[in-house]
Amino acid sequence: MLFFKDMKSINIIFSSFLVILLCCNPPHIKTGSWAEETLKSLSLREKIAQMMIYRMNLRLKDIKKEKWESINELIQKDGIGGIHLWYGEASSSLTFLNEMQNKSKVPIIIDADIEYGLKQRFEEGTELMPFMAIAATDKPTNAYDIGKIIAKESRALGIHLNFSPVVDVNNNPLNPIINVRSFSEDPDIVSIYAAEYVRGIQENGMLATAKHFPGHGDTETDSHSSLAMIPSDSARLWSIELPPFQKMIQNGIDAIMVAHVHAPDYQPDSDTPASMSHFWVNNILKNQLNFNGAIVTDGMGMGGITRNYSDSYALIEVINAGCDIIIQNHDIVKSINTVENAVLNGIIPENRIDESALKMLKMKEKIGLHIKKSIDLNQIHSQVGIRENKKIAKRVAAEAITCVKLEKDLLPISKLSDSPIYVIDIYDYKYDHSISNITKGLISTGLNIKPYQIDESDSKKIMHAILDEIPSGANTIINTFVTHKAWKDRISLPENELYFINRLQEKTNNIVLGSLGNPYVIQSFPDIPVYICAYKDNLLMQDAYMNAILGKVAISGKLPISIPGIAEIGQGIIVEKYTPKHSSKVYKPGTEVKRVLPEEINANTDNIIKFLNEAVDDKAFPGAVLLASKNGKIFLHEAAGYHTYNKIHKMRKSDIFDLASITKVVSTTSAIMKLYDEGLINLQTPVTKYLPAFKGKNNKYFSHKEKITIEHLLTHTSGLPPFRQYYLMEGDIESRVDSIYNTIPIYSLADTMVYSDVGIIVLGKIIEEITGISIEKYSKQNIFDPLGMTATMYNPIRKKMHRVVPTEINKENSLIKGYVHDENALSLGGVAGHAGLFSTAKDLALFAQMMLNNGIYRWERIFTPETVKLFTSKSFIIDGSSRCLGWDSPSGKASGGLYMSDNSYGHNGFTGTSMWIDVDNDIFVILLSNAVHPNRNNKNPTYFDWRQRLHSLVYQSLGFENENPKLEWRKQW
C-alpha cells in the first residue's frame, strides 16, 4: 500500500511540474483575448478605421448605387468600425448588413439612436414612448421592460449598440432639444430609470450608451445648430448633471457619448466643446469618474462643431481629448487619411489609436461578433413588432398619461355626449392640416365632434373664422403638438397659435388642453382648467391619450418634472376609469362573432357541405372556403377541394384569397366612409378639387370631367369606361396614373350605370391625396388593424405565401400566387382602389359583423351608424340601378341567393369571391374561391349557378322558405 501511495504522490508532483512548465512556455497558445490578438493583426489605417462610424440611411429608395459601392470599397480596403443606421426596411436592411459583415475582415458593429422604439428607425418595429413618459408611470420596472423590447427587436435586425439612454437632467423648461427625451429633472429619478433601462438592454444582448456627457439638460441651445452652454458651476455640475453618469459607470455602461457643449464657468478651456476637451474627457470622465469603456462623440456634423472648426482640426482634437469612436458625417477615407498623417507626424500618439481601437474591438467581443457576424432573417418575424411587445407598449403608454390640472368636471369627455365638442389639433410647424389620430378616434365613438386643424402657416383671418364657429361656453379640446426637433431651436407654440388659444379662452373656459409633446406648454395658458400630458405625438401616445380622456382607462401618471407656476414634481391627479350609470350608444360594444355548432342555432348544414363538394367535382373551382353567420354566431366555416387541380395542397379554412373587386368595398369604399365620417371628403364635391390632374388634357371633355363627383364614382355613373389596358402602356406607375386621369368618358354623366374599375382606381388616388399615405397603409391603420384583420393585406408575396391560394396560370405558364391577379392593379404596384386586397374568410367575417353592428366591433368604432346606413342604401342616382355607394344590392339573378332581404348589400370579385350582408335577418355569407383557375377564359359557367345556390342553401339551412319575389334563379336551378 505504501508503494502505491508513494507512486500517487510522485504522479501528482510530476503533473504539477508539467502544468507549471507549460504555463511558463506556451509558444503555440495565444494568451490575449480575441480583441487583443485582432489589434495586433491590424495596420495603422485599419486601427484608425475601427474608430470610425459610417452613417447610413438604408431605405432602398434613398440609397444610390455610388453609395453602395463606396461603403463596399471602404469595408474591403481599410475596414470600418461601425455603421450608424438612420432608417430602413427590415428585411432588405438585414440582408445588406449580413452581406457587409461577410465581406468585412473585422466584424462591423451596427449602432442606432433608438430612444423610443425600433419603429423610430424601422416601420416594422414596435412603437414606444419617450423616457419622460416612462418615468411618469412611477414604475421603474417599466424602464426595464422597454429596454428589453428595444434590445430584442434591435438584435433581431442586426443592431448591436444603442446610442441610448439619455441621462441628461432636464432642469430647464426652455431646453429645445432634450425635453421629454430626459427621464426627469431629478438626478435620482434619472439614475433609477436609466439603470433599469440599461439593465433591460444589456441582459438581452445589446450594448448601451449613456448620453450626453457632461449633461445637455440645462441648455437653451440645440447643439445640432451651435455650441450649447451649460451655465453651471462646480457644485451644480457634481450635484445635478454628473450623478446619472456616475451611476451608469458604476453599473457597467458600455459607452458614453460626449456632447458638443461647454461649461465656461467650470472648465479651464472655456470655449472648447466637451467632445474636444482633454479636461472633460480625460480628467473628469476617465480619471475622476473612472470610466474605462468606449467614449463616443456626438455627430461630428453638428453645428456645435462645424460652425467653429474644420473637419480635420475637430477630428484630431476629439481623438487627442480621449474620444474613441467618431460618428462621422463626411468622407471616411479622408478622415482616415487625416488621422494617419497626424499619427505619422507625431500630432496624435499611436498608443492613443491603439487604446481606442481596442475598446471598439472589446465591445465586439463582448456581444460575440467574433463568433457570429450574421443574423438569421427569420429573427425579424419572431422578434420584431410582435403582439406581446405591442401589448406591453400599450400598457406602459396608458400608465404614463398624466392629469396635471382638473379644475372643471370635463373628464371623461364621454359625459359630454349631449352637446357638440369642438376638437382642435394645433401643430407647431407649417403646412400640416392632417386630422390627428386622436380626433379620428373621438369621431369614431359617435360623439358629436366638430374637428379643426391649425398650423403655423395659418393667418389670423383663418383663425378668426374658426373662432366664429365656436359658440361661447362650448366644450373644447385642444390637442397641441409641440415637439423637440433637431435644428428647430424652439420648443414653444408660435405666436399666431398662442394668439388663437388666448382668443378662444375669451369665448369659453370649458377647455381640455392636451400636450402631445412638450409638457411645459401649459405655462402659456395658466387659466385653462384641465391639462393632460401625453409626452409624445406618435400614434401610441395619441391612442393612450384618447382612451384616457374618454375614460376607457384610468389616468394615473405622475409628473417627473415640475412646471413652474403650475405643478410640482410628482403631481398627478388620479382619474378613475369611467363606468356610465346608464348604457349609452357610445360605450355599448359591438357584437363579436363566435363559432358555434349548427345545431346550437337549429341549422342543418349537411346539404351545404354536400353541394360545396359537388361544386368542386363539377370544376366550378378547384377549391373554396364558405363561411356563414347568423346573429353573430358563425355556424358554418368549411373548406373544400384543393389549391389547384393538381390536388397537392388541400384547401384550408385559414387560406388567403385574392379578393379581386371585393377590394372596392372592404378597402376603398371603407376608406371613403372613414374620411366622410371625419369631414375630410364631401360626396358632392367634384373629383378635380382633390385631383386637378383628373381633368385631363383633352379640353373637349373638360366640362364633363369637372362635373364628376365622388358620388358618381361610387355609384358607377361617371360615364367612365369599365376598363382600359393601362398595364400594356410603357412607362412607370406615375405615367400609368397619368393615363388613368386622362381617360375619356364614353357615356353621359349620371345617365346610365356602367360598372367601372377606372372610377374606383381614381377613388383610391383621392384617398391617398387626402391622407398623404397609400391606401394600403390607410386601410391597415384605420380598418384592418383595429378590427384584428391580421391576414388582410396587399402584396402577400412578402409575408404569408404558404397560405395564399393561387389564381390562374398566366401566358408565361407561371402560376399567379402571392401577387394580384388583376393586371392593372399589378402594374400599379399591387395596390389599387379596384383590386389588390387579399384576405381570409375569418377576417372578412370580422368586417361583415362590424357592418351589421352599424360600424362598431367590440369597443372599436370604425364608422358612425349614419355613415353605414348612407353607404349601404340604394343611391337612386339612376332609376333602376341596384348600386349603393360603393356597395351593390340584390337584384335579378342575385349572386347572394334568393332569400336575401331588400336591405341586404354585398359585392363579388372576378376571381371567384363574394360577400353578402343581410341587415334585416342579421346574416352574412362569405364565399372565397379561385374560380379563374387554371385560366380565366375557361371559367366554368356553372360557377355562377353554384355560387347562387350555395348562398341560398345557407338561408334554407336556417329554415327560410319564402324567396324574395324580386329575385330569380339562374337557369340551372
Structure description:
With 973 residues, the chain is an alpha/beta fold. It folds into three domains: 34-383, Glycoside hydrolase, family 3, N-terminal domain (TIM Barrel, Alpha-Beta Barrel); 401-550, Glycoside hydrolase family 3 C-terminal domain (Rossmann fold, 3-Layer(aba) Sandwich); 606-957, DD-peptidase/beta-lactamase superfamily (Beta-lactamase), CATH 3.40.710.10. Helix content is 37%, strand content 13%. The protein has 33 helices and 27 strands. The strands form six sheets. An eight-stranded parallel beta sheet has the order 9-7-5-4-3-2-1-10. Strands 11-16-15-14-12-13 form a six-stranded mixed beta sheet, covered by helices on one side. It has a six-stranded mixed beta sheet with strand order 17-19-18-27-26-25, with helices on both faces. A hairpin with a 3-residue loop joins β25 and β26 (913-918). α7 (140-156) packs antiparallel against α17. The longest helix is centred in the first third of the chain and has 23 residues, at 2-24. It is globular.
